[in-house]
């Protein structure tokens, strides 16, 4: 399908491919920088903060307030040297995440997803990858966690248009990790009790390299 035809079918912020998935690798550096220029760094909420442990509210308003939140999220993500950030990680109870993440092939993906839902894949497409995983809300801690090495997410872009995102390898892990956040799950919630305890020990023994919100 020609690019012009694709654009006519998709009124969203990013172009899409022949299967309707966003092309989020084009102008990635410029788009991420444009968001950050408008944003302000906010401190990261950490495990134990109530906003991280419940499902967030759906995004229903796609105006300037949301645009500023997204800009702040991109800025906060860069300050913390992360590859993905959910709104509740800066204390905002809304279903939106941003990402600036490379896949295993080295392609840089940059985008925004509001009201995300993971597509349930058939068993024959679920090849598990048990690489290490970390989280800005569990600073300095890492643990191996098996997740599918391919993921698809549906939702809306920053203007409210329908959007589909897919990723492989590390980027697939990012999409799953950030969607989990917005439904009240941290990656350590998927670990065994022993592994979770070890991750929390790692966090307690080290100092985060970015500003965080202390839990009272």
UniProtKB/TrEMBL annotation:
The active site lies at 178
Similarity annotation: Belongs to the polypeptide deformylase family.
Write down the required cofactor(s): Fe(2+)
* CDD domains registered for this protein in UniProt: Pep_deformylase (cd00487)
What name does UniProt use for this protein?
Peptide deformylase
Please provide the Gene Ontology terms (biological process) for this protein.
Answer: translation
**NCBIfam families per record:** pept_deformyl, PRK00150.1-3
Q: Spell out the reaction equation it catalyses.
A: N-terminal N-formyl-L-methionyl-[peptide] + H2O = N-terminal L-methionyl-[peptide] + formate
Q: What does this protein do?
A: Removes the formyl group from the N-terminal Met of newly synthesized proteins. Requires at least a dipeptide for an efficient rate of reaction. N-terminal L-methionine is a prerequisite for activity but the enzyme has broad specificity at other positions.
The domain of life for this entry's organism is Bacteria
According to its UniProt record, the EC number is 3.5.1.88
Q: Which residues bind Fe cation?
A: 135, 177, 181
List the coiled-coil residues: none
Q: Keywords in UniProt for this one?
A: Hydrolase, Iron, Metal-binding, Protein biosynthesis
Manner of cofactor binding, per the entry note:
Binds 1 Fe(2+) ion.
User: Where does the signal peptide begin and end?
Assistant: none
Q: Does the keyword Repeat apply?
A: no
Q: Which SUPFAM superfamilies match?
A: Peptide deformylase
A molecular function (GO) term: metal ion binding
Q: Which InterPro entries match?
A: Peptide_deformylase, Peptide_deformylase_sf
